């Protein structure tokens, strides 16, 4: 094998000195130079697996490896030892040790129990037989190819209830690029069946394969419904091929009819036309039957979606019911809660009405007890805003000095009573609803001294001006 033709040989392949050392055989005793032994074995074992992975081939023999790695007319004399060590280490296993039996009908659990596979990989290279022609399987590449085949199937599944049972021939055609020959394909299936990821069986003389669904620990036996679904799919495929054949036949008969007419062979043309009409009628019947079968297949596939929807509804209903029960959400509890809210709101409305009526009664009591004319108070406030003259001129009544002083004193006493009454109400409200605290100490005291009348203030001001002038 030349480097340019393969493209995956190591860089040292052109180094004659290095390759001469690697092509030489192993020493009889590993203990003489263990490092040299291990390095040579590592180089060739990695190269065998690498080439097999690139070429999609995992079945080897000593003869095939010698032919594959021939370099400049020289064969690697160490290959025989490499195969022995890889077999002893479990990297290679004999094909005969993998095969339980050549008959497909013997595949199954009983076969593996009666004749367990030798997957311990401890067999020693046989002496005395045609060892160079014994075929070996790379366990690493076998596992990779099996995983790739399984993944390809799962990617092609559109309906889990109908697409996991597949015809043997169909799988073989779809995985032709993964397994180069029939023997490799059978070994992959055997490996997957041993892992309980597929089940290979026969039905009416036809080999079928059932794959385990994603998430399943082991494949289940094939059911009668799955066999019926597979038969339906095969019938649909057969009818589709029949339609293609009839369509091509109709086109051929039409072409033949035209050619016969062109040659003047009217009787032969009529016969060809009759065959065309018969094919067209058969085609129409076949298409009608195919349409019915496809509707049935669609219905089978849609049943899986309907089951998923039903399961989702069931799970959602159970989760919602549990949530309502855990939180005590029932119609009776909801009615009771709403009634309590209505009762509390009615109570709050009654409290508001009572408070409004009480405030009105207090205002009337204060106004009547103080004997103060509200209109006079408004006039006085407007006078203060305008700054118009003396406050006493805005009040109705006598303007004489003594009369005004008496009215001023009477007004102070009235306001003093009002202030005392308001303080008592505030203290009662705070102590009843809030509680006594610092807020009561912040209330101002009711004035006890009568303020000076405007006339007295004017007179005192005049006296001070005279004293200053003198």
Could you characterize what this model shows?
By secondary structure, this protein is mainly α. The chain is 65% helix and 5% strand. The protein is built from 17 helices and six strands. The strands form two sheets. It has a three-stranded antiparallel sheet. A three-stranded antiparallel sheet has the order 4-6-5, with helices on both faces. α8 packs across α10 and α11 packs antiparallel against α12 (266-326). The longest helix is centred in the middle third of the chain and has 61 residues, at 266-326.
Question: Which key features would you list for this structure?
Answer:
three-stranded antiparallel sheet, 5% strand, mainly alpha, 470 residues, 6 strands, 65% helix, disordered N terminus
Query: Approximately how much helix is present in the residues?
Result: 55-70%
Strand content: under 5%
Radius of gyration: 54 Å
**In this structure, how is the largest beta sheet organized?**
3 strands, antiparallel
**Count of DSSP helices?**
17
Major β-sheet strand ordering: 1-3-2
Q: Uncertain spans, ≥5 residues at pLDDT below 50?
A: 2-6, 101-129, 391-404
Structural class: mainly alpha
Please provide the ordered H/E string of secondary-structure elements.
HHHEHHEHHEHEHHEEHHHHHHH
Shape: elongated
What's the total number of strands? 6
Q: What is the average per-residue confidence, as pLDDT, rounded to a whole number? A: 76
- Calculate the terminal CA-CA distance, rounded to whole Å: 141 Å
Task: Map the helices and strands.
Elements: H1 3-6, H2 16-23, H3 34-54, E1 59-60, H4 62-68, H5 79-89, E2 92-94, H6 95-98, H7 109-114, E3 136-138, H8 139-156, E4 165-167, H9 168-174, H10 182-194, E5 198-203, E6 206-211, H11 224-263, H12 266-326, H13 331-370, H14 374-386, H15 401-433, H16 438-441, H17 454-469
Antiparallel strand pairs: 1-3, 2-3, 4-6, 5-6
Helix pairs in contact: 8-10, 11-12
